[in-house]
Amino acid sequence: GCFRRLLHKPKPGSVESSLNAGCSASSSPSSSSSSAESSTSSPGMSLARSVRPSPVSVSDINASGSARWAKSYDVCICHSEVDLELVEELVSYLEGQPESFRCFLQLRDAVAGRAVVTELCDAVQNSHCWVMLITPDFLQDPWCKYQMHQALAEAPMANGRTIPVLKDVDRKDYPKELRNLYYIYMALKENSFRQIRDTVMRYLQELCRSSTSRTE
């Protein structure tokens, strides 16, 4: 029996190939773990990212058949007239991004001669996301509150479409209708603008992903 095993001993080449196969198989988990480690080390990444679907690219969002084009605007900005200058800066920032976000700005885009209520309702219904710039003047403006209520009626489950942005407002004065939503506190303007952009982009990615999965 011993001599038979020696006679049928595998050739050196086959031993090396089997060893190489074993090494390559054992190296796969370490390579995946190293990639996971590298992803967690980069800003804005989390370990859960590795088990989520890959993000939808900008080209997919901008594609002609994208769910993005089902509405006229990507973002509707709800604000007080007193805060118009800041809002114009935000709109300029969003529209200047590579995604060329389509923003509804009431004083610029409202149709002359139409009722204010009609314009506000149409803007809410025809926008994917709504940015609420909540300032002391916003809290005193009945039209801002009306538009906020319209937005909440459109998306009562708070699926990321309503984006509250607080500026110069204490937490105790935060509208009770929005208490179940996380908000962006505007301290540094540039950082807040980027957060708004990322939030809108995240929603559009989820929208396109869910639309693609339904068609498949």
Describe the structure.
- It holds the Pfam family TIR_2.
- InterPro entries: TIR_dom, Tol-interleuk_rcpt_adapt_Tirap, Toll_tir_struct_dom_sf.
- It comes from Cariama cristata (Red-legged seriema).
- The protein is an alpha/beta fold and 216 residues long.
- The chain has a domain at 67-211: 3-Layer(aba) Sandwich (Rossmann fold).
- It is 52% helix and 11% strand.
- The chain contains 9 helices and 5 strands; from the N terminus they run H-H-H-E-H-E-H-H-E-H-H-E-E-H.
- It has helices at residues 2-7, 12-41, 58-62, 84-95, 106-109, 116-125, 136-140, 142-154, 189-215, and strands spanning 73-78, 103-104, 127-134, 162-166, 184-185.
- Strands 2-1-3-4-5 form a 5-stranded parallel β-sheet, with helices on both faces.
- Helix 4 links the parallel strand 1 (73-78) and strand 2.
- It is globular and about 40 Å long.
- The relative contact order is 0.12.
- Mean pLDDT is 78; it is low at 14-54.
